[in-house]
TrEMBL record:
GO terms for molecular function: succinate-semialdehyde dehydrogenase (NAD+) activity. Belongs to the aldehyde dehydrogenase family. It comes from the Eukaryota. Keywords: Oxidoreductase. Pathway: Amino-acid degradation; 4-aminobutanoate degradation. GO terms for biological process: gamma-aminobutyric acid catabolic process. The active site is at 262. Residues 32-488 form the Aldehyde dehydrogenase domain. The keyword Thylakoid does not apply. It is an enzyme of class 1 (oxidoreductase). Its EC number is 1.2.1.24. CDD domains: ALDH_F5_SSADH_GabD. This is Succinate-semialdehyde dehydrogenase, mitochondrial.
Amino acid sequence: ASLGLEDASLVKPGSLIAGRYACVGGADGSAEETLVVRNPATSAALQTLHSASRRDAVRAIESAHAAFLQWRHSAPSERYDLLQRWAAQIDGHEKDLARLLTLENGKPYAEALGEIRYGNAYVKWFAEEAVRMYGDHTMNTRDSRGLVIRQPVGVAAAITPWNFPCAMVTRKVAPAIAAGCAVVLKPAELTPLTALALAELAKRAGAPDGLFNVLVAASPKAVGEELCTNPLVRKVSFTGSTPVGKQLLSWCSSTVKRTSMELGGLAAFIVMDDACIDTAVAALMQNKFRNAGQTCVCANRIYVQQGVYDEFVHKVAEKVKALVVGDGLVETSSIGPLINAAAVAKANDHVRDAEAKGAKIVARAPFNAPAELASGHFFAPCVLRDATDEMKVSFEETFGPVAPIFAFRTEEEVLARANASPFGLSSYLFTRDIGRITRLSEGLECGIVGVNQGAISDARMPFGGVKESGMGKEGGRYGLEDYTIRKYILIGAL
Ligand code: ADP
């Protein structure tokens, strides 16, 4: 299928292993599994792919290992050049990539194009970091010197989710290549097409065979277990849900692998009574409804101080009524479908649970063309007032466009409620008081705080959580750390 792309050869038939694509019926003729990728806006099949087996995973790991043995000796300038060429390929195909992304993930085309550019910012950033992998040198005694050198950790496995089919891939693969590692990527089975297109573009940019492998698997468990237990893999970087992250961590313990985990969030969005309400409302709209609320940094719990509660609820309600739900390829749609039926069911369950416990729906976004939308996984964004801590929306990640608004009285109270969670990825704070900014941003138990700001992701900055939201940092000058080891060398008898 060309899927309406200018360059139809970006649509691939299956996993990329050692520079070759697997295809349905292509291998040894034995019974093989396939995987159908569907458009969440229409449920139409987009592409049938070959599904990787555990044996394919072993082959991919071995090819990555062979590539690593070469690539670890590459000069920093070679890594820079490869990543810059890859970035140029991504720039040159951004429209096709965005279309593919909307087709398999559902997000509106303009957002998809934004994600391709944001994702490519990581490739460009880590190209620049590849030439800045500094170590240390010390004079230990008169006749001895200490060196601390940085080396690539080895073969890195990356397991990525469906909510950012491009950015979650580049955020792991680019620093791995910059550090001198080779990669085996397992993208989410719901959105493998963007990942395969990105790998194809890396291949065209001159990535050696085996440096960047992609495993597309209908059911992730067997391939995931191989990636987390094979001794040739030295690093696993995962973005996804907390329960799956815990499973991978326990597998990784058998060979003591380095791990980075970007897991669930339950972001608190705090509006104090001295805040600029229009700024807070605009930030909430951007933060809560991006990707139809399916991001790990989306506000889950919106805490608004009593004095400004009614004004804030009213203003958010008006904005939500102005959203338009529809197919992401239709220009007037500002909210696409959710990823699948289970996501719609969860959002509905959270709303019903909240209503049963006393919350009220004060706004609902309209549909673009209700009749045409019957076959997709659509859910109309809504605003709930009078939310309380007994409701699921206060302790479960909704991952959908439901905005529950909770009232609070004091700064101490809201800090305690925000921190009463096993999660700690991002928080948002709206106030113009420097004392409150300092106390709350330092007191919130999380990895990222947006102050008077709802969009925090930036390739130049470290992204990552605390507590059960995970460990490790992606992006910024810290992003390379997760893919390097520091080796201490003592030179004596000088
Ligand atoms: P989400 O809630 O975002 O779908 P998941 O944690 O289920 O998050 O999925 C994120 C990634 O983890 C996907 O690539 C998925 O295929 C993979 N995954 C899910 N379950 C497993 C598993 N048991 N073993 C290995 N990988 C898994």
